[in-house]
Amino acid sequence: MDFSIRAANVDDCKDIARMIMELAEYEKVSDHVKVTQKGASCSSSDSRLSPGTSDADLEQDGFSKNPFFHGIIAEVPEQHKTKEGHTKIGYALYFYAYSSWSGRAIYMEDLYVMPEFRGKGVGKALMSKVAQLGLAAGCHQLNFAVLDWNKPSMDFYLSQGCFDITDTMGYHCLRCEGEALKHLAQL
Amino acid sequence: MDFSIRAANVDDCKDIARMIMELAEYEKVSDHVKVTQKGASCSSSDSRLSPGTSDADLEQDGFSKNPFFHGIIAEVPEQHKTKEGHTKIGYALYFYAYSSWSGRAIYMEDLYVMPEFRGKGVGKALMSKVAQLGLAAGCHQLNFAVLDWNKPSMDFYLSQGCFDITDTMGYHCLRCEGEALKHLAQL
C-alpha cells in the first residue's frame, strides 16, 4: 500500500486528537481521555514555563519550545482517503527518556493505525521510524506499555524482538495523580 | 535530621554515579549497570545531536543542551558526612513525559537514599520535590517503576497515595534493545 511517514507538525493536532480518541475507544478507556487539539489558555511559547491546561493540549504540549512529546504521522495519497475524507491514518507519539542503568532511551507513548489500514505494514513502519529516531539520538532502548488484554498488540511486539519487562523482571508501573500528587508536593 | 534538597549540577555526577551503583546493588542488578560519570567522546554541546557513548554518560546526557534527564540531590552538612566523607547522601532523577490520555507527566527514574540515612524523611523530601517540579510544569501525573520484590519501597509508595497501574489496569512495560532495536530500525 502506498503511504508515507513524516514528522508531525502543529497542523496535524486535529487528526492526532481524533486518532487518540479512536485508540482510546479500542483500548476501552475513552472515558479517561482528556485530550484536546488546542487549549484556551496558551500564553507562553515555552511549554515548560506555562502552567498548561487541566487537559492534554496537543498544540501547546507538543509544538512549543521544549515540547513534552514528538509525533510522526502515516499518510496515504488523496485517492486512498477514507470515506470520511481522512488521509492521516496512523500516528505514533514519543519522547526521550533515561535509564540510569543503560542511559538514553526513547519512549513510544502511542502507536495507532486506523482499523481499515491495518495489516499493511503501517504500524511496523511507524514503530521502525521511532526506533530509527531513537538510535540516531544515541538511545539504547525503546520502551512502551501494553495493556495485558491486548493480545494482538502484545503478539506483534514480541514478534519484533521486544520483551515484557513486567513479566521477566517484575517491573510494576506506579502512578501518583490528583489530590495524592498535590498532597505529596506539600511536604 | 538536617539535610537540604537542591538541583543537581554537573559536579554531582561522580556522586550520582556512585549512588546509582549503590542502588543497583540494592536492586540486585549491578551487573546490568553501564553508567559512567563521564564518557570519552563528548564533542557536541547538544546531547540530542551527538551519538552518545555505548554507556550512560551522566555529564553529557544530563547536563548538555536538551538533556535526557534532570536530577536533584539530598545533602547533609559537613559534620554529618559519612565515614567515607560523603555529604551527598541521596538523589532522584526525573524527566518530562506525556500521556495522550491525560497530558503532561513527570517520570521519576530513580529515588535513592544511602542506607544509614533512611527513615529520616530524606526519600519523602526528594519525592515531594519531584512532585512539586511536576506540578509547576503543569504535569498531572508522577509515574515511576518498582520491582515487584521490593516490598519496602512498594509499601512506602502506596502509603503516599500512589497506585500500581500494572495491577489495577494491566499495564505491562515492554522493551526493545540491542540487535532487536537495530533490526526494527532497518525496515
From TrEMBL, chains A, B:
<feature type="domain" description="N-acetyltransferase">
    <location>
        <begin position="21"/>
        <end position="187"/>
    </location>
</feature>
<dbReference type="GO" id="GO:0008080">
    <property type="term" value="F:N-acetyltransferase activity"/>
</dbReference>
<keyword id="KW-0012">Acyltransferase</keyword>
<protein>
    <recommendedName>
        <fullName>N-acetyltransferase domain-containing protein</fullName>
    </recommendedName>
</protein>
<comment type="similarity">
    <text>Belongs to the acetyltransferase family.</text>
</comment>
<dbReference type="Pfam" id="PF00583">
    <property type="entry name" value="Acetyltransf_1"/>
</dbReference>
<dbReference type="InterPro" id="IPR016181">
    <property type="entry name" value="Acyl_CoA_acyltransferase"/>
</dbReference>
<keyword id="KW-0808">Transferase</keyword>
<dbReference type="InterPro" id="IPR000182">
    <property type="entry name" value="GNAT_dom"/>
</dbReference>
<dbReference type="InterPro" id="IPR051016">
    <property type="entry name" value="Diverse_Substrate_AcTransf"/>
</dbReference>
